[in-house]
UniProtKB/TrEMBL annotation:
One of its GO terms (biological process) is lipid metabolic process. One of its GO terms (molecular function) is phosphoric diester hydrolase activity. Gene3D superfamilies: Phosphatidylinositol (PI) phosphodiesterase. Residues 4-244 form the GP-PDE domain. PANTHER family: GLYCEROPHOSPHODIESTER PHOSPHODIESTERASE, GLYCEROPHOSPHORYL DIESTER PHOSPHODIESTERASE. This is Glycerophosphodiester phosphodiesterase. It comes from the Bacteria.
Amino acid sequence: MTGTKIFGHRGAKGSYPENTLIGFQKAIDEGVDGLEIDVHMTADGEIVVIHDERLDRTTDGDGYVKDLTLEEIKEYSAGSRFPHFRNYEATWDIEKVPSLQEVLELLTPYDIELNIELKTNRLLYTGIEENVLALVHQYGGDRKVIYSSFHLPTLLRLKALDESVDIALLSREISHPYDYIQTLGLEGLHLDVNTVLSNVHQLKGIFGDLRVWTANESNEIKQLLDLNVNAIITDFPEKAAFYKSER
Ligand code: G3P
Ligand code: CA
C-alpha cells in the first residue's frame, strides 16, 4: 500500500459544506488520514474555521471575520448556502462556523492528522499564531498538526514560538520554496497539483514533506499516488481513499 495520505480539503468540500463540523465528520467517515482547515481570527481574538476573510460566500451573514465577535458569527448558518449538493439535508442549515476548539474536540477520538492553514496572506491578525498554538496545546492532545500558510512570516513566527511545530509553505511555484526549506527550516511544502504534475522531474531530491492541493480529478489522484507524495489534499476524499485502497 502507498504511504500517501489522503487529506480532506476543508472537510469534504466537493460534497458537504466546507469548513463545517458535518463536513469534517463526513470526511472522517470517508476514511481520510487527515483534514485541511482554514483559520481566521475574530474581533475578540477567537480562532474560527472559515476560508474567506468575509462571511458572505459561505454563510448567510456578511462582513469581515476580524470585525465580528465569535458570538456574532455564530448567529449565521454555514450550511444553508449549499443546497445544490446532491447530499443536501435541511439539517445543514443549523451548521455554524466552527471554532478551532470545536474542531479539535470533534477530532479527539480519531487518529488523523490536522493541517491548519493560517489565512494571513491578505489581512494582518496580530496574535493569531499565539492563539492557534494555545488552542492546539490545550485541545489537540498528541495529534500530528501541520501548520501551513502562503505567508512565510506567519510560519516563522510559529516556529519562533515553538520550535517543535511542523510548518509547511503553501506555494504555486517550485524553485524558491526549495531554497526556503533548506535555509529556513521548513518541514515541508504544500504545492498546487498543476505545479507538481508539470514539474515532476524537479521533485527528485526534495527536502521535507510534499503535500499537493487540490487534486480532484481521477487522473491527478492516480499520478500523485504513483509519485508517492506525502499527502493528497482533495475535495473528494472518498474517491481518493478508494484509489489508494486499490494500491
Ligand atoms: O491548503 C491547500 C489549499 O487549501 C490552499 O488553497 O484557497 O483552498 O485555501 P485554498
Ligand atoms: Ca486552505
